[in-house]
Amino acid sequence: MIDLDILMQFDAEEMAYKKDELILSEGKRADFYYQITKGEVKMFNITEDGKEFVQGIFSAGNSFAEPPLFGDFSYPASAAATTDASLYRLSKNRFLELLRLHPNIHLKFTQILCNRLLYKSMIMKEVSVYPPEHRILSLLGYLKNENSPDHPYHVKLTRQGIAELTGMRVETVIRAIKKLGSEKKLTLKGSKIWVG
User: Fold this and answer.
1) Could you tell me which residues come within 8 angstroms of residue 2 by beta carbon, excluding any fewer than 6 positions away?
2) Alpha-carbon torsion, ordered 146, 138, 154, 192, to 10 deg
3) SS3 of 117, please?
4) Helix axes 159-166, 103-129, angle to 10 degrees
5) Which residues have C-beta within 8 Å of that of residue 146, sequence separation ≥ 6?
6) Cα separation values, 178 from 1, 14, 64, 130, Å
7) How far apart are the first and last CA of the chain?
8) Strand order in 40-46's β-sheet?
9) How much is the average pLDDT of 125-135?
């Protein structure tokens, strides 16, 4: 992401959040760029029946919630720390100025946003069309390609996390993972899941 020295040149401030602490709220005006230096953050929506649907999980070295800064619209989801987290926050105006002065960073953001659009498109199709096993394999395949394309990938998500990212109930995820394990489409070692 953006080098910390560059962020500091543009007056970024370091923020600390406790596990489960809200960072930004759905529907609020987008005023800041956020970049994680430690911990993990999830972006999520709450459905009408109170169920949480996770839009994405971001870890150290990642940024999140940039599209509203470019599109000048409110946050489409909330964000909260899933662990104790540290991050840098930069005002929208300074962030846009930074991008104007550093076109290589701007290009990197274009690539990141394109990859996120690809992921969203894949998940939308999965949720609306395919059975649970297919949804899980697609999600885990995407994560493997992002994190460990040439080697077996140890899935760090819990069954609850997989459920939140695929819009399914935890019980459905548990059954589907057992089935995928018995069909040798996933490798299960105790409670750990390996892909590829």
Assistant:
1) 35, 63, 98, 105
2) 160
3) helix
4) 90
5) none
6) 37, 42, 33, 18
7) 28
8) 22-24, 78-81, 40-46, 52-59
9) 84
Question: Three-state DSSP class for 94?
Answer: helix
pLDDT of residue 167: 82
Q: How far apart are CA 174 and CA 186, in angstroms?
A: 13
Whether the CB-CB separation of 22 and 78 falls below 8 Å is answered with: yes
Q: Which two tokens stand for residue 89?
A: 């926050």
Which tens digits make up the pLDDT trace of 163-181? 988 888 899 999 999 999 9
Dist CA 181 CA 73 (whole Å): 43
DSSP letters, 131-160, are -HHHHHHHHHHHHHHHH-TTS-EEE---HH
pLDDT tens string 6-48: 999 999 999 999 999 999 999 999 999 999 999 999 999 998 8
CA dist., res. 187 & res. 196, Å (int): 8
